[in-house]
Amino acid sequence: MKVLLVDDHLVVLKGLRFFLQTRLDIEIIGEARDGKEALQQVEKLQPEIVLMDVIMPNMDGIEATKRIKTEHPDVHVIILTSSSDRDHVLPAIRAGACGYQLKDVDPNLLEEAMIAVMDGKTSLHPQVSNQLMTHVKTEEHDDSFHALTLRERDILKHITYGQSNKEMAAELHITEKTVKTHITSILGKMEVQDRTQAAIRALKHKWFEK
After folding, report:
1. May I have one GO cellular component term (predicted)?
2. Which end of the chain, N or C, is surrounded by fewer C-beta atoms within 10 Å?
């Protein structure tokens, strides 16, 4: 995994590099101190994963994430910050982040989160998940679920389980290409940008609870 570190605190960058460079599957290819520099580094270095802080000078991590996902949709952005405030969590998810971890996360769990997003899954710190489920305001009316076909509902349910495209394809006995086609349709009907937002909405509305 080629990783770009983005944080305005040098001590954080040093700590992340110290841990991650000991992992055989992780290659730290660069660092950035703010959102603007992150955009430049992503363009130049083409990382697979960006570990992104939120509160930074010049351009914050949320705006940087949004622009990265627009210009480089295949880059996986994991927010790594000290704040689980919903005013940061929700905009980050909407911007396209596929993970949101807090800086107190166990280093081994951070590595697991990185592996998960590379496998097409989402990765949220438990405290962040609780914030989303507790504080996100539920829309009064949402017809998007009824617009989904039975197969699309099945795919969405598996997305909420955190399964990758490969895992869904194996369990549902269809090809990964077919899974991707269904997911594209689901995102369009739900008017969301990515599978993370789709999963959060499904969980929020308790669509798959018995």
Report:
1. cytoplasm
2. C
